[in-house]
Amino acid sequence: MPETISLEVLRYSPERDAEPSFQRYDVPLHKDWVVLDALNYIKDKVDGSLTFRWSCRMGICGSCGMMVNGEPKLTCATFLSNYAKENKPVRVQPLRYFPVIRDLVVEVTDFMTKLQSVKPWLIRGDGKPISEGEYLQTPEQLDRYKQFSMCINCMLCYAACPVYGLDPVFIGPAAIALAQRYNMDSRDEGAHERMDVLAQHEGIWGCTFVGECTKVCPKHVDPAGAIQQYKLTATIERFKSFLMPWAAK
Ligand code: FES
Fold first, then answer.
1. Which atom of ligand 1 is found nearest the CA of 65?
2. How far is the CA of 248 from the centre of ligand 1 (A)?
3. End-to-end Cα, the chain, rounded Å
């Protein structure tokens, strides 16, 4: 393994630059270093103005997502040694399809607004007092939605989704998967409220089932599966409302 590796990092400062441009840095190549370690090395030793987000360094907070050699990756979970054999610089860019604020930091308001619009929390009508006990679930009921609850909002699935790239009004994979996490929870009663947002062209019907969202998810969530599953639910509900309006909620 070589002793150093080169990174080409996209730099952009709105006050200084008309256009983003790549800057090359040589960093030590340690076997256990991830891309985030290299960025921190550059920031600490070479150029303190390099700007990027990170927090947990253990694939939990979801804040260190970037494009690494054109693929959406959590940089804290992407080993530099994976790229050492390629014998060319590792390209690090901000997450695709999001506006860039500075260097590797992107604007996330669009995602946060969409996430909130699908009400990713438990909705119940009865408001049972705590003194009456918990809402219990069987392991089978938990298994129905558990994989969707692993989403860490890292937005890699948005950077992988060509539909979101072409049509930014698309609600997108993570928001729909998280809506399904609650729709499938036996304690939740909010599926009907979420349907108003999800069963639209900008919601599930915008998805053309490319499936890249599922491939890039670092937590093995299957947003593409959630969307197809929900298409079936929405279709059944639509038929119910036409044929049996008294049965549709
Ligand atoms: Fe938290 Fe990478 S720093 S997921």
1. 2
2. 42
3. 62
Helix (H, G, I), strand (E, B) or coil at 109: helix
- 247 CB-near residues (< 8 Å, 6+ apart): 240
Ligand 1 atom index nearest CA of 76: 2
Quote the DSSP letter at residue 66. Answer: E
Residue of 58, 156, 219 to test ligand 1 pocket, by largest number of atoms within 8 Å of CB: 58
pTM: 0.92
Domains of the chain: 4-106 (3.10.20.30), 109-248 (1.10.1060.10)
- Spacing, Cα 246 to ligand 1 middle (Å): 48
Mean pLDDT by 10 residues, the chain (249 residues): 93 95 97 97 98 98 98 98 92 98 98 97 85 91 96 98 96 96 96 92 92 97 95 86 66
